[in-house]
Amino acid sequence: MARYGMAIDTKLCVGCMDCVVACKTENNVPEGYNRDWITEEAFGKFPNINLEIRSERCNHCENAPCVSSCPTGASHYHDIGGVVLVEYNECIGCKACIASCPYDARFIHPDGYADKCTFCIHRVEEGKDPACVSVCPTNCMIFGDLDDPNSEISKQLNSRKHHSLKPVAGTNPKIFYLT
Amino acid sequence: MELSRRRFLQISSATVTGLAAVTSLSSITKGAKKIEEKTGKPAKGIQKIPTYCDLCFWKCSAVAYLKDGELWKIEGHTNDPLSNGRLCPRGTGGVGAHYDKDRLKTPLIRKSERGEEKWVSVTWTEALDYIADKMEKIKIEYGPESMALFSHGVGGTFLKHMIKAFGSPNETAPSFAQCRGPRETGFELTFGDIVGSPERTDIENTKCMVLIGSHLGENMHNTQVQEFAKANKKGATFIVVDPRFSTAASKAKYYLPIKPGTDIALLLAWMNVIVNENLYDKDYVEKYGFGFEQFAYEIKDYTPEWAYPRTGIDPKVIRETAYEMAKHKPATIVHPGRRTTWYGDDSQRSRAIALLNALLGSWGRKGGFFMPTKLSIPSYPYPEYPKPERGRVDNPDERFPFAKGELLANGIREATITGNPYPVKGWIIYATNLLQAIPNQEETIKAIQNLDLMVVVDVVPSEIAGWADVVLPESVYLERYDELNISPFKEGFVSIRQPVVDEPSHQKPNWWIAKELGKRLGLKKYFPWNDIEDYLDTRLKSVGLSLERLKKEGVVKAPKQPIYFEDGVQPNFWTPSGKIEFYSLQLKEKGFDPVPKFTEPESPPPGYFRLLMGRAPVHTFAKTQSNPILKDMMEENSVWINNDIAMRYGLKSGDYIKLKNTDGVVSNKVKVKATERIRPDSVYMVHGFGQRSKMLKSTYLKGASDAQLTTKYKLDPLMGGTAMNVNFVTFEREA
Amino acid sequence: MHEITTTRNNHLIDPSLEIWGWEIPVYLFLGGMVAGMMIITGYFLFKQRQTEETCSCRYVPWVSLVLLSLGMFALFLDLEHKLFTWRLYTTFQVTSPMSWGAWILIIVYPAILVTILITPPKWLVEKFPVVKKYSEWLNERKIWIKNIGVANMILGAMLGMYTGILLSSLGARPLWNTSILWLLFLVSGLSGAAAFVHMVAKNVYERELLAKADNGFLTFELFVIALMIIGLLTSTQVHQEAAMLILTGPYAATFWVFVVGIGIIIPLIIQLMAVNHKVNHTPWAPIMVIVGGLILRFVIVEAGQVSSWF
Fold first, then answer.
1. Contacts of C86 (CB under 8 A, 6+ apart)
2. Would you say B333 and B353 are in contact if contact means Cβ atoms under 8 Å apart?
3. Which residue segment(s) compose the domain that C300 sits in?
4. CATH code (residue C244)
5. CA of A125 to nearest chain C CA: how many angstroms apart?
6. What is the CATH number of the domain that holds A150?
7. What's the pLDDT tens digit per position in C14-64?
8. What is the full DSSP assignment across C169-181?
9. φ and ψ at C299, to 5 degrees?
10. Mutate which of B70, B632, B643, B681 to disrupt the A interface (most A C-beta within 10 Å)?
11. Interface predicted TM-score (ipTM) of this complex, two decimals
12. Are C7 and A17 in contact (CB < 8 Å)?
């Protein structure tokens, strides 16, 4: 059983938003909504500044509050890789999942259902990387199986310092930021 | 010596004979199909069509995807040396260009005062007849040279051809005097060759790169950004010099928060350290250098301690960074930048950059500046152009002695205002928004008012289109063929742009417009091809390729050629001395400093801040703001203000303010970004926003326009470029 | 300095959550009111007061029925994918308070209807004679009525608690993420319901009793609010910041004036004076309590959406 995750090298990321644009066209994300985005976090006083640039999206948490708060089971862990998905035809649009997500990764699609990053599962099932990963001009994103010790992502996570977002939220996110 | 762009690059041309078989893309069709030919039913499934991008000038090859006959997405072409299979965000968002709701749909003819944006929709025949008629009148009354063409990008190829065939030498683009010009001049004076585009910087293999004001990562020159990341991954050292803590600065080992306008002082100090401490590449300088002794003498007093009060950079840091550059030589790049029109001393600053690179021996070396190679494809066998009776209009009496090669867009504007050296009565403007591109909008409008004919060809109604007499709607790149792309780069290649989808309305491709105009102007013999497929096939067949093959494969590469001196490229320097000119006699002869000298920049008046501008990764110039996908990424710009200053003015992030410059020009409202990432004496905006074309509804008055506030500009005395970072602004509360 | 910027700008998500407008606070308020009314009705049934002609247990269930239906309608209005609402009832998701709520509501309805059956109004009996049959059958069994009273109290308590747990289970919003919110909403529902019954009661005993009870609920509510705030203030920084939203931040004025002042303290004083016969009973106090309860839901729902982890 695979366990899909993503590692993003913040040392390489320039925050160009190509991942955001690629997601938009690949998945037909409607105008005014984004499934992924760029966050820039700067510390310090000019000119001594530390800037971290991150490509962010649904963390596909292993302990996903959106899944546990969903009243219909529309939000679920996919059989493949534990990817968190929404079954649109089961979603009633109650927004509990949105309110429960510490990352604000979800939104209500104009068609009424809760929507978010799917890790491009339709591509992954064809053996491709998610659109954001495959387009990145800096090659800063690695997608893969966290349970496979020989996967590039496992190697990177084993050898490099990294962090995830809001670990105190206790959601066990599967996106990691290499620093 | 003749400084000429015809010498552009010492190109090791490759021929296609013996080209390796290229793996072709799967399931390629001959072009977009909305309807299945056999069944007459709507097309089903995925079609992939290779073409090259037009979101900027980099011209990456791409593959457009259609789903059930509708344009879906676009990806990089894996065989393309520019994109390496990955487009930049603009390229990825390129499909939005096709879907842009604000696109021009039919030809328009002005029906009231210029700039009022009142139009009559006309047919192509009416529009082209009108233009041809006016052009003939101008030709009779003032001569063909009184027609000028402002054209940006590859799409202008056929209009350029048309204007030359018409008999005018006055063809220009703001990409020279408003952008790369000073850099090319500085490098050509030093190495006898220009940097060119795509830049010949071997970033992938560099061990140390110095970025002076260049904000790679925010400017998305695709291959450069890709290589920047590769070098980063390999542990290269980056030294970033910028008044603003750019994205690149966050990747740098050294960030030098320089006082704006003092780069030459820093460069001189670096060279001083490297020469005084014998850190330069002695063999290289001895072998290829000219006038090194005089140069060394000229810079002997410019110590880091001398530079410190001028630049604000700690002498210790200047030394350390100089050592770092020297340590990695020749795999050190002092990046020449791209838009180098800053403070008026720009050619000399670029020359100083060239000289520093020369000391490090990086020109022609791996990890420095490679020697580009290109697939050689003869141009179309046209008859010779008529020789204009009068020379170029932009630089009377060679006021700018080193403005050779390309024409000055601002020079043509000036001639249009003054009528000197001769009147300019007609402008054709292709795909460039002159109001955003050339500083001082008032002068541009003044020039326009002197015209008998102004034509704008563009895909969207840009601001400049609002001032035109005739506006011609062009097909976007996804709907048309264009000239072949045979850019010189690390390996030779040719790539094709071909239609992927149909035009949504009455838009037409530039080649058709040029040919139709040519026909009406009696220039039929200059357009011997039937259509562009015929043209492209003729060119391609001349080297054993074919249009059919290119349409299928998108990119064809030439065999690899050496691109470094150490690999056997013959070093050639087309300077008067035939060497790298550390000391420039030709500059001296024309009364300029043979070795760059520092002059103190103007300080902002009290309560004012220097206006700096740059790029966002999701937009190109002022031309992509209405693209629905890219607009969604960044709808408006913001003004970066140092936190302490913002606090002093009671401003916080998200507040809207207006900017007022020292000439009293007030901008549109713009969001504040209060940040630690900029010097207190400067403010910064992304260029291209605050557009005022009413027809361009989606982006009307979104953000503020730095171009509007750039009323002052300094002319580079060497080549006539317009330095723009010389304006100061203050804040006005939004009422 | 710590600067954080994001390019995300999703509708109703950024810069802070605005997914829930008036519908959810109204739904939570009405749910709370119904919960309180069920508990009060249940108590009177348990006390066998249904035989009293003027007992509120004869008409309050009707009010509950209407309010509950209005509440559920408000909830329905809030759903974004309405055509799929039935999906709520093809599954039971044990970890989802929303699912619990859906099923609780399903049980609450028959409970209220059965309660109505104990003392059906004349017109109902006349229209549907069968009602009389069942009603008589029920009234012959006192223990059943007692049990219906208990069921009302239990279901009311569950409903009241659920309205709070619905929010407090959403861990991403620190203001909601307090395990005492269920108690606050329950007691607020009780105080609102008591105020309402007190206001409309025809029976003097019940009126007095509920005024006294309401004073108790209001006092207890004050205590719960204090505990909740103390709980937040002694928790993590994000919880402290969340508390500040209602203490000194943008929601402070509404919170202090309408929820605490007009919603609790002033009516508490008036009703204390009334039960001590210093002043006459006035509908103003109960109205204030009810309005205060409604505004409490608005403040908590809105401020909760603004509160976030970073």
1. none
2. no
3. 23-306
4. 1.20.1630.10
5. 27
6. 3.30.70.20
7. 999 999 999 999 999 999 999 999 999 999 999 999 989 899 999 999 999
8. T-TTSTTT--TTH
9. -60, -45
10. B632
11. 0.97
12. yes
